[in-house]
Amino acid sequence: MKISKALPLAALASLSLVLAACGGASSGATAGGGIQVPDLPAATEIGESEGQVNIIAWAGFVEDGSTNPDADWVSAFEKETSCTVNRKVGATSDEMVQLMRGGEYDLVSASGDASLRLIAGGDVAPVNTELIPNFGHIVDGLKGQIYDTLNGKSYGVPIGRGANVLMYNTDKVAQAPTSWADTWAADSPYKGSVMAYDSPIFIADAAVYLMSTQPELGITNPYALDKDQLAAAVELLKTQNGVVGEYWNDALKAVSSISSGTSSLGTGWQVVVNLAQGDGGKVESVLPKEGATGWSDTWMISAKSKNPNCAYKWMDWASSAEVNAKIAQNFGMAPANKLACEGSKENEAHCETFHATDEDYYKQVWMWTTPVEQCIDGRTDATCTNYQEWTKAWTEVKG
Fold first, then answer.
1. 202 and 224 in one domain?
2. What CATH number does residue 36 fall under?
């Protein structure tokens, strides 16, 4: 099944996420995992429009028809609410965090690696979901997650999600794989043509594989690694380094590499697979038996928002079935609103491709979460490694 609308190439080039270290813990309430977060209030009502809303978002999330005439859900919002939308396209999660800390933006489409930093830093406020009627239609699997919900408070409205799948070129890989094994083994038959994602967060992919193949390590959450567990993941990544032909963080290059057969198989996104198929590439994907990592994006409101009424109106507008479907199809991900899968064959096909309402599928996917010293797996007798340590380890892996 192929998605009917391909992400614009200019937008696709901005998809790759570059993660940075987690912000320092702030004083305040303690989350379930021991993370200190400020005790900030949520809005209690929505007033008159302030006249504008300033949003920093991933390419493809906030479209007014200027990039693609078929992608415009901003114009109708502006007409209905009298809120002019000022958008800045974010290039990386790190950039988004820094811009939100500056206080000039009301909203951000934060990925799981950025959201925890923003919450811990007091940069975003809790969201009163009762003021967002469409929140009731969000799939259950995207509610109450550690990367956007702490102390029973929701800090955002989910936009969509996706898995980091095993993609493969069928001309190079004759039999559909069921495991990640050939991407990790030193004697892989695809040595020199394996693709891997180029980011420290990819350490979590090694941890997911180790959870299945070396349970004695005691890893129960791939983002909660103590020093010994991190060392084991690094050793596996060093082994993989010997068979990797290409590390990628540019989705356009990933499409070209897997489509042409330069790479035989490796970690990718479903949208990369679909675009490769659209270009005639003999490419398929699978969620291996060991599970996988993944990503989820969330609308989050600045704790310093100057336009909170327009911000709340945007969060509800963008979470409606119609608009959420458009965003998901334009970007290439599963929509968060389950009703976005209804109403047309196009919506149904897209949701089938991205497993939008298949919670059994996403139970096998560990969504990106920035690693912090407080072990988010529930351990209280251990100290986990943080993102600075992961960044140092990734440099060691690649040499």
1. yes
2. 3.40.190.10
Scanning the structure block, which residue is given the tokens 């390419």?
A: 59
Structure token pair of residue 4: 């009917």
- Total number of domains constituting the chain: 2
**Dist. CA 216–CA 280, nearest whole Å:** 44
Tokens of 360: 């059994």
Q: From first to last of the 399 residues of the chain, give the pLDDT tens digit.
A: 222 223 433 334 333 333 233 322 222 333 344 567 889 999 999 999 999 999 999 989 999 999 889 999 999 999 999 999 999 999 888 899 999 999 999 999 999 888 888 998 999 999 999 999 999 999 999 998 988 988 889 999 999 999 999 999 999 998 999 999 999 999 999 999 999 999 899 999 999 999 999 999 999 999 999 999 999 999 999 999 999 999 998 888 999 999 999 999 999 998 899 889 988 999 999 999 999 999 999 999 999 999 999 999 999 999 999 999 999 999 889 999 999 999 999 999 999 999 999 999 999 999 999 888 889 999 999 999 998 899 999 999 998
Task: Assess whether 201 and 283 both reside in one domain.
Answer: yes
Q: Are residues 15 and 54 in the same domain?
A: yes
Q: How far apart are the first and last CA of the chain?
A: 39
The residue range of the domain holding 32 is 9-161+295-367
Q: Residue 280 region, left (φ>0) first, then alpha (ψ -120 to 50), else beta?
A: left
DSSP letter, residue 397: H
Are 136 and 51 within one domain?
yes
- Residue 208 inside a domain? The answer is yes
Task: Supply the pTM of this predicted model.
Answer: 0.85
Q: For residue 75, is it within any domain?
A: yes
In a domain, 2, yes or no: no
| Same domain for 94 and 199 | no
Q: How far apart are CA 287 and CA 331, in angstroms?
A: 20
